[in-house]
Write a structure and sequence with these properties.
Blueprint lengths: L2 E10 L3 E4 H5 L6 H8 L3 E4 L6 H16 L8 E5 L10 H9 L5 E5 L5 H14 L5 E9 L9 H4 L4 E11 L4 E9 L7 E2 L11 H5 L6 E2 L1 H22 L9 E4 L4 H11 L10 H4 L6 H11 L8 E8 L3 E8 L1
Parallel strand pairs: 4-5, 4-6, 11-12
Antiparallel strand pairs: 1-7, 2-3, 6-7, 8-13, 9-10, 12-13
Helix pairs in contact: 3-4, 8-9
The protein binds oxa(dethia)-CoA (UT7).
Oxa(dethia)-CoA (UT7) binds next to helix 2, helix 6, helix 8 and strand 12.
């Protein structure tokens, strides 16, 4: 059986920077509160003329170039996002056209901040069952367009960006070892964007009630995120015969530094083997893990054959993880 090996990875963040100090002038918050409660110092904000698939295009071009293939060789584009350019056509199809990936089937995954892991899980199966040679997995978001800039409990947390990996079918023992995904829809109310769907289609009333913005019960989400991410990390290691000490790099979803520290403690993976960039980008949802993987590789923290553990948690609730022999 061939395995899904990462043959190329790319990332892109927009140039615009919004610091905690800038936010102090927008809502009643402080650099001290944001830094101590989350670890975030600044985040990137897309330019007015950029859409999510523009960010994805930049990241994808890097991944495809590194993989040394042509866009026409891609069999599938799986695009994880909570902020597609529009409801349909899918961001996957829009990206397919921008890339000229004419032979790819393209679709989106809606799994909030776990979207990239969900997309990886699907790509892994297509490759392992022999249905695909090359798959582009993308996580990209422009969350700045769906945050309520008057709500200090959410607007300080999120940022914009994109990451992409090119997975190729290869013989050998490198590649995705195992991916696990989970969900529990009974927690849906704790993290949602209620407007714009069939429940609350756009209306003057939905806009007056700010239904087109992220609503989050932060503290309740926090507690469940810690437990779920810890549990999935331990499960992935145990079921595959590894311990924390075997992991060369932990790449967690970057939502809160305190969640990341809790996972490090539970799995015995030290700080110097955990990739963190939350201070620079905040929570970029489905883009956070591929951006972190891209940076880690660029900066020499990620080498061929390293054991990499990626874990995420998000709206749904959804959570999951992937263990990869890089
Ligand atoms: O990525 C998908 C999943 N998302 C997450 O994993 C996010 C999970 N949640 C979190 O990261 C944290 O819950 C937050 C960072 C959102 C909040 O931290 P917390 O320690 O859970 O704080 P809290 O919500 O319990 O709020 C504590 C206090 C409140 O004031 P009172 O009621 O104690 O007077 C808030 O009003 O902090 C206040 N507060 C703020 N103060 C200054 C909330 N937001 C801010 C703010 N600046 N931006």
């Amino acid at each position: 059986m061939k395995k899904a090996v990462v043959t190329g990875i790319g990332g892109y963040v927009p140039k615009g920077i919004l610091t905690n100090k800038d936010l102090e002038t927008i809502v009643d918050t402080s650099d001290e509160w944001i830094t101590t409660r989350t670890g975030i110092k600044e985040r990137r904000i897309a330019a007015k003329n950029q859409v999510t698939t523009d960010l994805a295009l930049e990241a994808s071009k890097i991944a495809i170039k590194k993989a040394g293939i042509r866009p026409r060789q891609i069999d599938y584009i799986i695009f994880a996002t909570a902020t597609p350019d529009m409801l349909f056509p899918s961001a996957g199809c829009l990206l397919q056209h921008k890339l000229g990936a004419k032979n790819a089937a393209a679709f989106d995954i809606a799994a909030g901040c776990s979207g990239f892991i969900y997309a990886l899980s699907i790509a892994e199966k297509y490759i392992e069952c022999g249905s695909a040679e090359h798959i582009l997995v993308v996580g990209a978001e422009i969350l700045s367009r769906i945050v309520d800039w008057s709500d200090r409990t959410t607007c300080v947390l999120f940022g914009d960006g994109a990451g992409a990996v090119l997975l190729s079918a290869k013989n050998g023992d490198r590649g995705i070892i195992s991916t696990v995904i989970r969900s529990d829809g009974s927690y849906g109310d704790l993290l949602k964007l209620p407007g714009g769907g069939s429940l609350f289609p756009p209306s003057y009333e939905s806009i007056d009630n700010k239904l087109h913005y992220i609503k989050m019960s932060g503290n309740e989400v926090f507690k469940k995120a810690v437990k779920s991410m810890e549990d999935i990390a331990v499960e992935l290691l145990e079921t595959n015969g590894y311990e924390g000490k075997d992991v060369d790099l932990l790449v967690p979803h970057q939502a809160n530094m305190r969640i990341i520290q809790a996972v490090q403690k539970r799995t015995n993976i030290p700080e110097n083997r955990t990739y963190v960039n939350i201070h620079k980008y905040g929570n970029t949802s489905a883009a956070s893990i591929p951006i972190a993987l891209f940076e880690a590789e660029e900066r020499g923290f990620l080498k061929e054959r390293d054991l990499v553990l990626c874990i995420a948690f998000g709206a749904g609730f959804t959570w999951g993880g992937s263990l990869i022999r890089w």
